Amino acid sequence: MTAPSSSNRFLTTLREDTLREIAASKAALVEIWSLSLAQRVEKGHALGPLRVVSQKGAIVTLAHETSLSQESFSRIREGDLLRMTRNEPLANGPSCFFLHDDGELVVVQMLSDAPLPFDEPLSGLTLDPDFFDPTDRFLAALDALRTTVHGTDVVLPILMGEGDSGSDSETFDEVLDQLEDLPTEEAFHPAQNDAIALSLAASRFHLVQGPPGTGKTHVLAEIACRLIEKGHRVLLTGPTHRAIDHALRSCRKRLPAGVRVVKISRARFDSDSPVEHFDHLGDAELSFDEPFLLGSTTLNLWSNSSGLVDQSFDTVLLDESSQLTLMLATLAMLRAEKFLFFGDHCQLPPVRLAPNPDSTLDDSIFNKLRKSSSTTMLTESWRLNADLAEWPSATFYGNQLTARHDRVLSLAPASSLPALQARPGFVSIQHDDRQSSTRSPEEAERVLELILDLLRGGLAPSDIAVVTPFRAQAALIRRSLRNREEFTPWPVEELLADTVERLQGQEREVILVSMAASRDEFIMRLEDFLFEPRRLNVAITRARRKTILLHSKTLLKVAQSLADSGSAGATTFCSLLES
């Protein structure tokens, strides 16, 4: 058991940091709301002006009214809570969840299907980050950490890096024997076997690190199935609805039809999901005397409107826990006896509006625990070929990441473009544009040329994706694909062009990374955004056969200058181009 004095100090610090961060986040939002629309849009914190195109129940579709809104970059992510106003974000407006923005149309889900509370015409609207105050939920969790046996004896020591991550050797050997006896077509590779067996044998918790394409979700689903076979009530949570939905889908495919798989949430982001979806636990009529899998965000577990406040589970699976802060993870850990963490601290970090390096909340739960606990890293990528695995393995994974296959790009007829030859798997293309910020027509033309040859060479649109930091660049490429005659033979709507966040967890045969920016002062201003190493890692590692990075010569020149000045992100970017 943790010494009372040290635990009290930790709890006091955690409480102070939590309240300080909530206050800092609200202050940061008020500062943003006080800016002009042009300033908010330029900084990526707002969308607008917008006009309503349609409202179908709670789903509202809006159109960008000006190029200012259409061509800006945005920090808004799917699932973010926004407030809709007539450019008066300091005033209260109806809240909504952000679903998607393709550069032309914005889709949101309101919290109810009531008509929008605005006079006609429904134009001149703006979407800004809304403030959700989690104080009551966090304070309730902190109180449980301090006053309950489970909080003080189980959860708190783990949060402090003093928890027991031991395992039962008999269970480990038994599970490992079962896995090694699986037929070839069902078998896992050795690191996956270890991750599954160690997770099931863990007395309290275990960490599984899943570098790109190593089958983390596949492993999570197998663990969920085996826990449910043992009669466990399993909770699955994560930092975003997308992460939770993706993991629930994978589990649903593997579980018997008679096992309930449900999600409790007011917002629906996966419209064709095979998973049962309910606003309130009571509507699900779920028996807690039988095994099941339930998905929910951590905050929703402590919401009076969810029906989950007094519920407990046998095991919680925390997916993408490298994006979960300490406090958000605590909300889930207080509801279960055993905790299994899945993530990769070398990919996208937690999103925080007011980061503070000195705060106990600055790190993710995954990164904090891995420093003091045993972690199983999945080491074979089933996605990346040998060329594509080389740079991330050396840069992020201590040269431990290897390629399970060596598939290369093969087009028939073959392309004459040098970038589309079978090897190397990673190629960069430079151009001379110097005038672009969030949208580069010259770079888009290069992207379209590559896409056309890929399609003519036998790839389907769904085999290709374009990753870009800016939705204006993505919108330009999508619009060109739809409108140009040469692309009419193919269903180009199946070709995804979007941001890094939208692509995490997904893969394609070929990935085209379009950096777009070529104005040096713009690049300097967005240095942390453009060259963030973990975002680069995600962008580069979505491909099975080839990744092509398109960028201006100016971008490289600025990156080299920043690298010489000690910028870690720019140094990482330059190392990629040198690989």
TrEMBL record:
Classification via Pfam families: AAA_11, AAA_12
Superkingdom field: Bacteria
Domain DNA2/NAM7 helicase-like C-terminal: 361-550
Signal peptide extent: none
Annotated DNA2/NAM7 helicase helicase domain residues: 191-266, 304-351
Keywords: ATP-binding, Helicase, Hydrolase, Nucleotide-binding
The keyword Lipid biosynthesis appears for this protein: no
Keyword ATP-binding attached: yes
Single GO term (MF): ATP binding
Family stated for the protein in its record: Belongs to the DNA2/NAM7 helicase family.
Protein name (Swiss-Prot/TrEMBL): DNA2/NAM7 helicase-like C-terminal domain-containing protein
The organism of origin for this protein: Roseibacillus persicicus
